[in-house]
Amino acid sequence: MRNLLSIYLSKWGLVLIGLLCLLNQIKSQNIDSLRIVLNSEKDPIKKIKILGQLASNCEFNEIEDYSNQSLNLISKLSPTQKKENDNTLIVEEARANNNLSYYFFKLSLYPKAEDFSMKSILMLEKSHLDTSLLVSSYNNLATVYLALKNYEKAISIFNKNLKYDIISKNMEDIALDYNNISFAYRGLNKNDSAIYYAKKSISIKEGLENKSDLINSYKLLGAIYLDINTIDSASFYINKGFNYAIELNDLDSYGLVYYWKGLVEQKLGNAKVAEDYFLKSLQYQKNAGNLELIYNANLELYRLYNNQKKYDKALYHFQQYKIFQDSAISTKINQESSIKQVKFEYSLKENELLDKQEKENALSEEKQNKQKLIILFISLGIIVSIVFLIFALNRARLLKKQKNFISEQRDLLSTQQQELIQKNDLLDKKNTTIAENINYALDIQSSLMPTEEKISRLINKDCFVLFQPKDVVSGDFYWTFSKNNKQLVVLADCTGHGVTGAFISILAIKSLEKVASEIELNNLQVILKKLHEDFLNTFGENINSDFGIELVMCCFEGNKMSITGSSNSVCLVKNNELTTYTFDSISIGTKEAKLDGITIQQIDSVENSNVYLFTDGFIDQKGGPNNKRYLSKNLKEDFIKISNLPIKQQKDTLVKNYTNWKGSNEQMDDVSIIGIKC
Questions:
Q1: Nearest to 568 by CA among 619, 529, 637
Q2: DSSP letters along 313-358, please?
């Protein structure tokens, strides 16, 4: 028998595929055998039973035909035949109605599905003949009410079904009943009741160790808790469902579970983890083709990236959201058009059956009453003519409406496609402009920062520069200046990275050029204060509280070196011993920065030593076996190990260490290190 609740059941794991294929083969052979018997069977009662079996097990497009054949045969039986086979005919007529309910539900013709389910239920409740068929009819009717979002009626029917399942002690069906009742209560926003029945369902399924069904139950309970912002419980049950999905390798559940896990982490404020889950959800759902889930996941990623000011990624996912949303709308329009076509065809079929039945009744009446032959023939001719005329007129009107509707839908789809093309062209132009602007910023920034060879020439020392921006352009920058036998080396980290950081770095370099040309290079305190004042004068009260520059300055004068800075450190390695010079935690350019009493470190001799300047991008990078930060302790150990190597090998070693540590992780910040061999 057909059962609509199969629509809501989870799919079996891959381990059952072989068995299902075998069962389908056996089922196909049985159907073929029944068709052969049907063609040769003369007994109408046996024929009705065979038709019931075929309708319950055949392909979807054959259900209506076999069910209607069964109902037609029942209607043609004589009163004596009906009386002798009363119980059998009641069951078979109820079975045919139940199968038709399933058929029309699948076509989204819910009123017809409801009508046939009610017919089946009324017959079986009155006769008390077939409890399993009655339960199936209850399930079908309740599922129709779920589709119509009439949750109160659905609950009422599921409770009726539950009574029979409790009597039969069918624990799997009882668990399913509780799950369906929970689903309906969630639709009514009665979350306490929804949680209660979901837990009852889970309790039974856990006892049965039905892991496949438990995946859906855990997802449902987790979703209910998420609805009421009980995040810990939502996370707990969604993760339980996810663990079972992994254990069973249920790929079809991955996309949905990852989406729900992303919503949980988003509620918890774990943006990075939420991002990973939404991306994984898209990865699995693109294969499954769930358009609604795909565009919802893209929408959440857009919101996440927009909040993080990652506008390039936000723009991409907003594009994807609109594309898949438009695709879903288009699919829905096509589905609605198909349904209307089916409704039209079914209307024609009903008219044809009515016409055929009227003709058969007329012929039967003609045989029984020859005296009224002429009058009946004339009457029948008039009726047939009128029916045919009405049918022809209705058909012409319906065909015209159908053609107009299809034409309108085609025009609508064409308009939507054109709008989408225009939007995509506009986005392409905007993306091109953005890329050109970013590349222009890169050219400007690159032209202002010296090469390794130029730095070595200016300071008369071997050096390397490890410079890896997170984006195309960087918030980190380095700069050198030479005057009066003194050489100034600066490494700085401006607020943010990408275009914002690059803009600030360009302003900082131009300010340094101005200040350094006016002041002696070993007067580091004055240079730092002038740079700070220059930025305050440029931005004034409009400056953002998050704005700032963290930097270190080294001034070489022969073998002597003086250093200062803000927040960042400088390391000096001599004879395999490392000394760290730290400075006040301030940000240059902020209104809150106090530069009185700036720390200046003096080193009398840096001969035969290595000096290392670095920002926090390297030490803050997550990676390694436990996905943790690299930390300054490990970088300092690296400085000691590489200090005796040639300057180029020092750089290559640090690059290798960073790459191996980062692995497949995203680069978290701009990475900058300057090494100087004295």
A1: 619
A2: HHHHHHHHHHHHHHHHHHHHHHHHHHHHHHHHHHHHHHHHHHHHHH
Query: What is the per-residue pLDDT for 575?
Result: 94
Q: For the CA atoms of 134, 137, 138, 144, what is the dihedral angle to 10 degrees?
A: 180
| Alpha helices (H) in 228-310, listed in sequence order | 231-248, 251-267, 271-288, 291-307
Other Cβ atoms less than 10 A from the Cβ of 125: the count is 13
Number of Cβ within 10 Å of residue 439's Cβ equals: 12
Strand partners, 630: none
- The model's pLDDT over 179-207, given as tens digits with 9 standing for 90+, comes to 999 999 999 999 999 999 999 999 999 88
Give CB contacts under 8 A, 24+ apart, made by 85-88.
85/45, 87/127, 87/129, 88/45, 88/48, 88/49
Please give the CATH superfamily to which domain 1-168 belongs.
Tetratricopeptide repeat domain (1.25.40.10)
Nearest to 410 by CA among 322, 337, 328: 337
In the chain the first and final C-alpha atoms are separated, in Å, by: 88
Q: Which residues contact 518 (CB under 8 A, 6 or more apart)?
A: 530
Percent of the chain with pLDDT over 70: 84
Q: How far, in Å, CA of 393 to CA of 466, rounded?
A: 83
Compute the distance between CA of residue 313 and CA of residue 310 in angstroms, rounded to an integer.
Answer: 6
Q: Which CATH number fits domain 450-677: 2.60.120.20, 3.40.50.2000, 3.30.1050.10, 3.60.40.10?
A: 3.60.40.10
Question: Could you give the angle at the alpha carbon of 465 between the alpha carbons of 461 and 466, nearest 5°?
Answer: 150
CA proximity to 652, closest of 446, 460, 465, 456: 465
Which residues sit opposite 477 in a β-bridge? 492
The encoded tokens of residue 592 equal 């809150």
Parallel, antiparallel, or unpaired for β 560-566 and 476-483? unpaired
Helix 311-368, helix 373-448: angle, nearest 10:
170
C-alpha torsion sign, points 279, 285, 289, 292: negative
Q: What is the pLDDT of residues 301-353, one digit of tens each?
A: 888 888 888 878 777 877 777 777 766 555 444 444 444 444 444 444 444 54
Whether the pTM exceeds 0.70: the reply is no
- Strand, coil or helix: what is 566? strand
Task: Report how far residue 119's alpha carbon sits from residue 542's, in angstroms, rounded to the nearest whole number.
Answer: 75
Q: Phi and psi dihedrals of 277, rounded to 5?
A: -65, -40
